[in-house]
Structure formats: structure tokens, C-alpha cells
Amino acid sequence: MIKRIKIIHPIVLYSTHDQNSKTSDFLHEGEIVEFNREKRRNGINWMEIYLKGKKSYIKKDFSKIYILKKAKLIDDSCTVVFYESKTRVNYDFHDVFTSHALEKMSQESIKMKRIYDHAQKEKYVNLFYNNNDVEVSKRILAKGEEVIITNEKGMFLEVLYGKRFGYILSDVAYYEGKNWWMIVVAMLVLLGIIGGSFYSLIDNGWTITGSILAIPAIIITAVIVICIKFVLAIFNMIYQNIRKRL
User: I want to staple 48 with a disulfide (CB 3.0 to 4.6 A). Which of 36, 89, 205, 236 is the partner?
Assistant: First the structure.
């Protein structure tokens, strides 16, 4: 996936990663731009972006930007809710929906939910909206389907599904794939360590036979899972810090 940033609030553009290179241009709310990497210079973290074929820079400020994430659903299913304005007003999600019906207002409702734990459990909320202002629709996202997370809005996530922006519950379970090569490296390293340990035991006269093999197999599996997470966290931290300073 190409790395991209969504602009949450207007942010200043810089021609280089230097405070004195500030330009008169801004990136505006709602814009999505590609970025190459982070750079740290003089105590400031910068995002190197591509704009009209040129490199530019913005400060890393999570109150103004959101780094898009590619997510694959782990839950059995979840609802994606979409809306389109029927007027010229560009409504925000929280301007459109309320968690309860408002008095003296004719509202319709739509159910947003997630189903998980082998379809045995579900969580849902009813959202109320004014049908005169917006057209609302929904789609069921199945396990394994992918969306791009583009923003977080409290108990909801804004997602890009196909070419449309929609919303899902923020606590849906999903897998975020990134730096896959680190997983391969970590597994090879761990398999090498485990293989070397077994060889050392056998070389020293230790033998394990029969059903007793199940015990070390379970222990080793648990250790591998824990170690992979730990090693990946270390690799990712080192890798990101090196990239920032290059």
C-alpha cells in the first residue's frame, strides 16, 4: 500500500525540513497526500510528502494529520455506514448522527454493529439522522475484507471502502499489515535459535520421545508467539529511527 496522510486541519507546507523554509501554501482539510517517510531534524519530526511531483514537508502533528492504515477485518462482520448530503452543506459525521432520537424532529435510524467470536457475540448502536439533510446507506463488511482507515472519531472509525468514505465502530477487530519482511526475518531468527537449542540438547544426550513431545511443543509455540511480537517491536523501532535520521 502506498503510504498516505489525510489532512484533518489546515497545515503549513515547507520546502525543506527546516523551520525557515515555511511557504505561503497550505494543505487543506480533507486532502489526502502520499508521503515517503519521517525525518527528524533539530528536534522536529517532519513528514516528507509528494505534492504535484515534488517533495515538500509538513510537521508531524497528529492533531492536524492522520496516517492512513490498511486494515483487514478479523470480526465475522461489521456494518459500514455511508451518508451523502442532500443540500450544499458539507456535514461532519457528528453533525449528521445522534445516539438518541431528538424531540420534535422527524428522524430515521440505522443500526451499526459488529459480530464477533464465531458469530456468537454482537455489539450495536442505533444512529438517528434527519432524512431531509442526508441520504444514508450501509453495507456489511465480511471477515477478511479490507478497508483503509482514514480517521478516528471517538467511538467510530472513518474508513475508505472502494471510493466511498464510511464509518464503522472503533472497537472492531482488524489486522494491520505493515513491514511484512520483519515477520519473515523474526521467524527465521527464532527458528534458528530454537533449532540450535534442540541440537544442543540432543548433542548433550537429551532425548524426548512419545506423547511427552506435546508439552515442549505447546511451550515452544507460546514462546514463539511472544518472541515474534517482542522482536518485531524492536525491529520496527530500530528501523523507523534509522529512517528518520537518514
Answer: 36
CB 6 within 8 A of CB 151: yes
Cα R_g (the chain), whole angstroms: 24
Return mean pLDDT, the chain: 83
Tens of pLDDT, residues 110-141: 999 999 988 889 999 999 999 999 999 999 99
Please list, residue by residue across 130-159, b when 16 or more beta carbons sit within 10 angstroms of its beta carbon and e when fewer do: beeebebebeebeeebebbbbbeeeebbbb
Q: Which residues contact 180 (CB under 8 A, 6 or more apart)?
A: none
pTM: predicted TM-score of the whole model, two decimal places = 0.72
Cell of 127: 444512529
Question: Cell numbers at residue 29, please?
Answer: 482539510
User: Residue 74: how many CB atoms within 10 A of its CB?
Assistant: 13
Residues 6+ apart with CB under 8 A from 90: none
Among candidate residues 162, 173, 57, the one with its CA nearest the CA of residue 115: 173
Q: How many CB atoms lie within 10 A of CB 183?
A: 15
71-80 residue pLDDT tens: 999 999 999 9
As a whole number of angstroms, the distance between CA 32 and CA 66 comes to 9
